[in-house]
Structures are given as C-alpha cells and as structure tokens.
C-alpha cells in the first residue's frame, strides 16, 4: 500500500466523474447539477444572499454595454433566475437543467433552450434549421472489463411522441405570445408581451404520449471515461421541433486491481524483500479473463521507493509489461502497456542465523571496525521521524520567547549532544 504514492495523481483518469455526477447505482443518473453554480462562481451550498451578491458582481463585469460578452451575460442572468428562485433551485439540484427547462424564456432576449445556452451545440444558430427539442444526457456506468472487451448495453427510455396532428394554439392564435395591458399609473397604460402559457410559446399544441423505446448502446473497446454515445433525434418530440439527441456518457467504474490512463493500466504490487532481491512470479486475472503470469527476469531486482526531493512525494519503483494495457479506441489490436508500481516490504527483524547467512551471501557486508569499548562510547539506534528534527533539547516555555524578543523570533533549538 502506498501512502499518497505518486503515480496516481498523474495517472488517475479523473474518476470524479461527470460534473456533479452522483455516484449512485443504476444505469442512468440525473444530468449535471453544478453548471449554474459555476456560472455564478458560487458554491452549491451558497446562501441566497451570496448568490445575489455574486450575480450583481458578475452582471456588472459582463454587461454587454460595458463591452462584456452577450452570451456570457445571458448565461449569468439565466443562472441567477433559476438559482434565486428556491423552488427552481431545488428542481435544478435534483434534476439538472431538465428539471427547470419548462419553456420559460430564461435570461432575456430570444428564447433559447437552456441546454444549448449552457452547453452550446447548435442551439444558438436557430436560423439554420428548425429548433430542436432539448437533448438529454444519461450517464452509464461501465466496468473496466466492459471497456476492455466492448459490450452492447440495452437501455429502455421513455420518450414523448406526438399523437395526431399539431394544432395551432387557441389561446394565442398560434402566435406563441400574448399581449397584456398593464396600468402603470393614472392614465398610463402599457402593453406587455408575454409568452403564451398554454403552448409554452410554441404557437402549437399537440397531444403526446409516452413511448418506451429500447436503445442498444454499443460500448466500443477502449472507449474513454466521459465519452459520449449519441442517439440522434431520440429526445422528446415537441410540436414543430426537431427532436433533440440522447447522449449516453460513459462513466468508468473504479476497478479493484487496475487504474487506467488512456490505453495504459497501472497496478500496484507489494513484494517482500526476499522477492525483491531474488525474483518472483505473480499471477493476475486480466480484464478479458486471461490469467497472466508476471515474472522478474533472472537477476532483476525490485528497488525501493524513492522520495522526490522537490515535492517530497514517495515515488514507487515502476516496471512495465509491454502491450498488456487497454485496447486503443478505434484500433483495438494496438494495446497500451501495463505499469506496475512496487512497494518493497522489509522484514522488521531477522534471526541471528539468517543475519549471518545473509551477510556471507550478499555483497558489500559491513566491515566491523576494531575499537576498545573502554575508549569509545557505543550507541544504538532508536526509531525516529524527520518531523521531530529540530525539536530536541530541553523544552523552552513560550513566555521566554515573548520577553526575550531581541532576535525577532524563537531562538534555534540546539540539538542535544550526549
Ligand atoms: Zn399559445
């Protein structure tokens, strides 16, 4: 076992998952629920007051009249409109943008669906074709074995489909908007345009039904964590809109034995000092079920961990089995490598006869120095920790530092000499 061993920080595939992706079971999880908070640069736990403050700050910085980016400004407004409303915020926290995407026109300006506002994806180019209904994202958890071997997963979804004809909305006469007269003061009235609540601004209504559909999701060999598998046009049907897409986002499960980065695998191995010096063979089950035997070459020695002088981190001794990593995506016949990070376990004590045998067998035995114990003091070693270095000697009370403040700080503690 490695206490904060290195390679993992470099090696980790970012198993944290999708932004905000929960770690619950099941094959589909709610979509992300952090983007709006990131947009306002607040924490998920922020209070309404903090959110308001962040909003005022950001909307000043990004206001288009002051040279800010208009899209960014819209995002900030939309995020605030949702997060400042406790009910909408709760929905968003539970269901993501799906939960609040009720056709309401967020962020001012033209209606733009929330997904394309925050995640791009063609939504901003409305003139280039019919609008699309919101796309959906589902996380699918996939084991490393399945990513190694490839797999087809059948997933059932429920989608809304339109039944019968699309009719013009009676409530707004197909305009999608309604005019309202408001009295501002005595003799002053104004007309306000509002999105039609009956058709959600579409100008059309249609009957829909829920349809169950089984999708075959092909997880290809070597697919990466967070990779997207897209089913075009499989999101809900909405009147006069092209159905959006369904995206399945691969979420690689953690593996008991292997860590993965790209096509490479990493496995950790504890060996005894004896194995480190004299060699070993180690059988492991690979991700495709093969048993493989990993062996040292004759004379090969597993070295100790070292410490990186700059970071102070422990660096395990690393070896590699070539071409036993993951299949490369798109080219499964080319595989990555399997890295092995070693930890050598030293014995804590040895019997006297073992010691003398080892001493006679191993190179560079200690040369016993001749001395007269009457003339030379003998000392035996105690265990110690480097963090205590500098703290030896008699304890100095803190009062003395305060009163004796000539040097501007504590005086160096002397190492005790005996
Ligand atoms: Zn209407």
Describe it for me?
The protein has 418 residues and is α+β, with helices and mostly antiparallel strands. Among the domains are: 153-247, no CATH class; 259-345, Sandwich (HSP40/DNAj peptide-binding domain), CATH 2.60.260.20. It is built from 11 helices and 17 strands. It has helices at residues 7-11, 35-39, 48-61, 70-83, 86-95, 97-100, 114-119, 144-149, 273-278, 352-361, 398-403, and strands at residues 136-142, 151-168, 177-185, 188-195, 204-219, 228-231, 246-252, 259-261, 264-272, 281-285, 291-295, 306-307, 314-315, 317-321, 327-328, 331-335, 338-345. The strands form 7 sheets. The chain has a 4-stranded mixed β-sheet. A 3-stranded mixed β-sheet has the order 1-7-6. A two-stranded antiparallel ribbon has the order 2-5. Strand 3 (177-185) and strand 4 (188-195) form a beta hairpin. The longest helix has 14 residues, at 48-61. The model is unreliable at 1-10, 12-29, 121-128 and 403-418 (pLDDT under 50). It binds zinc ion.
Short description:
Helix content is 21%, strand content 28%. The chain has helices spanning 7-11, 35-39, 48-61, 70-83, 86-95, 97-100, 114-119, 144-149, 273-278, 352-361, 398-403, and strands spanning 136-142, 151-168, 177-185, 188-195, 204-219, 228-231, 246-252, 259-261, 264-272, 281-285, 291-295, 306-307, 314-315, 317-321, 327-328, 331-335, 338-345. Helix 3 (48-61) runs antiparallel to helix 4 (70-83).
């Amino acid at each position: 076992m490695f206490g904060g061993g290195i390679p993992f920080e470099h090696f980790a595939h970012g198993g944290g998952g999708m932004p905000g992706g929960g770690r619950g079971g099941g094959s589909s999880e709610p979509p992300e629920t952090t983007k709006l908070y990131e947009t306002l640069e607040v924490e998920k736990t922020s209070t309404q007051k903090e959110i308001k403050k962040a909003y005022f700050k950001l909307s000043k910085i990004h206001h288009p009249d002051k040279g800010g980016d208009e899209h960014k400004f819209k995002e900030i407004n939309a995020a605030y409109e949702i997060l400042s409303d406790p009910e909408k915020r709760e929905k968003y926290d539970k269901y993501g943008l799906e939960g609040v995407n009720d056709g309401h026109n967020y962020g001012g300006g033209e209606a733009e669906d929330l997904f394309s506002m925050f995640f791009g994806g063609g939504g901003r180019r409305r003139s280039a074709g019919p609008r699309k209904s919101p796309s959906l994202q589902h996380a699918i958890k996939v084991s490393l074995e399945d990513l190694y071997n490839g797999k087809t997963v059948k997933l059932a979804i429920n989608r809304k489909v339109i039944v019968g004809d699309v009719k013009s909305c009676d409530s707004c006469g197909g305009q999608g908007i309604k005019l309202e007269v408001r009295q501002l003061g005595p003799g002053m009235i104004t007309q306000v345009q509002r999105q039609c609540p009956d058709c959600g601004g579409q100008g059309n209504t249609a009957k829909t039904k829920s349809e169950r559909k089984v999708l075959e999701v092909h997880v290809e060999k070597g697919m990466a964590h967070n990779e997207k598998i897209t089913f075009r046009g499989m999101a809900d049907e909405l009147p006069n809109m092209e159905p959006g897409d369904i995206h399945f986002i691969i979420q690689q499960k953690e593996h008991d034995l292997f860590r993965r980065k790209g096509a490479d695998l990493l496995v950790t191995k504890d060996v005894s000092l004896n194995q480190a010096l004299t060699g070993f063979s180690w059988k492991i089950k690979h991700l495709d079920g093969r048993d493989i035997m990993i062996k040292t070459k004759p004379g090969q020695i597993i070295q100790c961990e070292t410490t990186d002088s700059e970071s102070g981190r422990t660096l395990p001794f690393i070896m590699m089995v070539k071409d036993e990593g993951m299949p490369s995506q798109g080219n499964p016949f080319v595989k990555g490598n399997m890295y092995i990070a070693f930890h050598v376990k030293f014995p804590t004590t040895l019997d006297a006869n073992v010691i003398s045998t080892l001493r006679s067998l191993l190179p560079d035995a200690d040369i016993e120095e001749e001395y007269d114990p009457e003339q030379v003091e003998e000392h035996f070693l105690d265990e110690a920790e480097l963090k205590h270095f500098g703290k030896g000697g008699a304890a100095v009370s803190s009062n003395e530092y305060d009163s004796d403040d000539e040097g501007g700080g504590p005086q160096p503690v002397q190492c005790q000499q005996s």
